[in-house]
Write a structure and sequence with these properties.
This protein is α/β, with parallel strands linked by helices. It folds into 3 domains: 37 residues, no CATH class; 288 residues, 3-Layer(aba) Sandwich (Rossmann fold); 126 residues, Immunoglobulin-like (Sandwich). It is built from 14 helices and 19 strands. Helix 1 crosses helix 2 and helix 4 crosses helix 5. InterPro entries: AB_hydrolase_fold (IPR029058). It comes from Legionella jamestowniensis. This is Phospholipase.
Length: 522
């Protein structure tokens, strides 16, 4: 028998299983000789880990990844991680073309994966994915298209999302041209319109994907998912014309609450003969996903960007590199749960340490306060499936549930989606709100009022009744959490007067009476 000789530097578990079995079945002494001649021992053999990087929106160069890929490759060579040379891939996709959608990118990503590492996937290998910004939703959309009903078959082992736009970005509503002029973030490149539409807060596409992901249980299926983001504003990149680039509770582009994959969906339906009841039709929460706010990280830039600022020289002490390494080393549910707790502790420490930022310049000294924020995305529809376009939504508080009793300073921002007027996003200072509501004077009461049009009146043939929602502090704590988003669907009853359509057996011509009868159809 010819002795099988191995190149020890390319040995994998598969090689070991096949060749050592052959040797062992013939002569045990040849097995010992193999181990003696090979500079690696069995406990030194490492299973290959494939890592794919996926960038964010309006990127035209792979330097957006900084030197993180090179550093990970070096760590692999040094034996600190199960990565070998040639197994790090830099993904790139087109997001600055108006014809390309997120769905298109996800489909093309599937082809790129199969085309680039098909041979490894056939052998049962899996890959880790590190994304930035819009890259997170792209990979999640890919998972939703191809593996939603069978996550166990997904070849993804680790999904590490850096500052992902999972619930969109407040900047997206500024539009292509204005965003393109913010060169500090977009380098003068206008984002593609369809990608921008997806990223607008409350978009139908992001709502659909996030609603679908409520059913996902990644950890049970051996997929370890993480969200790492920052909340530091790089004042050198701040655009005075666009205040969102300096928004508290964000990294200058993505809000902490918009990145977080721990979120809830609340469905409230108006019921009753007179529409007097607002019933909780459904309340669902995602399975827990590891989430961490990294210290000193903004969205972009070589100085503070969560990924761009990683260099070969600073990676060993850079929070992004350190925690990515920790994430990639997770191998089972127990280690995942342990790291989830550590990231929660890190988030608490980061937000405590970055609560106050003092900026000194030759001309002024300015203090910035960063509290924890929550985001509420409202989806207003009626029981006929129509989106509401003309309405006012007021938050209310206090014993009388008044819009004038809300704590001062709690309100951060409000955006109505430009493509679907029935989507409205509120951005609230959770810390101010919690402290303000949880007082004897306010009685822990928080709610909202919706005045939709057409309104009920003596002349209304079709209308919506005024709707009030009241909740207690206990209810609020179930729904609203710091650093998180809650999606709230509100379904109103569309009431139609019986006068709108009638039949009569009186054949004498007569004027049609349009006066409402006061009685509604079923």
């Amino acid at each position: 028998m010819n002795t099988v000789r191995a190149n020890c530097f390319s040995t994998s578990y598969e090689f070991l299983s096949i060749h050592l079995t052959s040797l062992f079945s013939c002569k045990i002494i040849q097995y010992h000789r193999f181990l003696h001649q090979c500079p690696y021992r069995i406990n030194k053999l490492r299973k290959i880990m494939i890592v794919i990087f996926v960038h964010g929106w309006s990127v035209t160069h792979t330097n957006t990844y900084g030197e993180l890929p090179q550093w990970l490759e070096r760590e692999g060579k040094d034996g600190k991680l199960d990565i070998q040379v040639g197994n790090i891939y830099l993904g790139h996709y087109i997001s600055f073309d108006d014809t390309v959608t997120v769905d298109d990118i996800a489909r093309a990503f599937d082809h790129a994966v199969r085309d680039g590492i098909a041979d490894k996937l056939r052998d049962g290998e899996r890959f880790a994915c590190i994304t930035h910004s819009a890259g997170g939703p792209v990979v999640r959309k890919w998972m939703d298209l191809y593996f939603k009903n069978n996550l166990a078959k997904c070849p993804l082992s680790h999904l590490i999302m850096l500052a992902p736009a999972n619930h969109g970005s407040a900047l997206a509503q500024l539009g292509k041209s204005r965003l393109g002029r913010i060169k500090s973030f977009f380098e003068g490149i206008e984002p593609g319109q369809h990608v921008l539409d997806w990223l607008e807060l409350g978009s139908d596409m992001s709502w659909k994907l996030n609603e679908s992901w409520l059913d996902y249980n990644c950890t049970t299926n051996g997929i370890y998912a993480f969200v790492l983001t920052g909340q530091k504003i790089d004042r050198q990149l701040y655009d005075a014309i666009n205040s969102y680039t300096g928004e508290s509770g964000s990294d200058g582009v993505i809000r902490v609450a918009a990145a977080n994959m721990n979120y809830s969906l609340l469905k409230l339906h108006q019921e009753g003969t007179n529409g007097e009841n607002l019933v909780v039709a459904n309340m669902t929460r995602t399975k827990p996903m590891a989430f961490g706010v990294l210290p000193g990280c903004s969205h972009s830039g070589k100085r503070m960007g969560i990924i761009r600022s990683v260099t070969m020289a600073n990676a060993a002490t850079h929070p992004t590199a350190i925690w990515i390494l920790r994430c990639l080393q997770v191998k089972n549910r127990d280690s995942y749960n342990t790291l989830t707790k550590e990231l929660a502790k890190l988030t608490e420490e980061t937000q405590h340490n970055e609560h106050i930022q003092v900026v000194n310049t030759p001309l002024y000294k300015r203090k910035y306060i960063t509290n924890r924020y929550s985001m509420i995305i409202f989806r207003l529809v009626d029981d006929r499936g129509n989106y509401l376009n003309d309405y006012d939504l007021y938050l209310t508080a206090g014993p009388q549930y008044s819009e004038h009793a809300l704590p001062k300073g709690f309100f951060g921002d409000r955006q109505r989606n430009q493509h679907n007027q029935g989507k409205l996003t509120y951005y609230l200072d959770y810390d101010i709100m919690e402290a303000g509501i949880n007082t004897p004077k306010m009685q822990g009461n928080l709610g909202f009022r919706i005045r939709a049009r057409p309104e009920a009146s003596d002349q209304a043939l079709a209308y919506y009744k005024l709707l009030d929602f009241h909740s207690s502090l206990a209810d609020i704590n179930k729904i609203l959490h710091p650093n998180e988003t809650v999606m709230v669907e509100i379904m109103l009853q569309r009431r139609v007067d019986r006068t709108v359509s009638r039949i009569t057996n009186i054949l004498t011509p007569a004027k049609i009476n349009s006066k409402p009868s006061g009685k509604t159809v079923d």
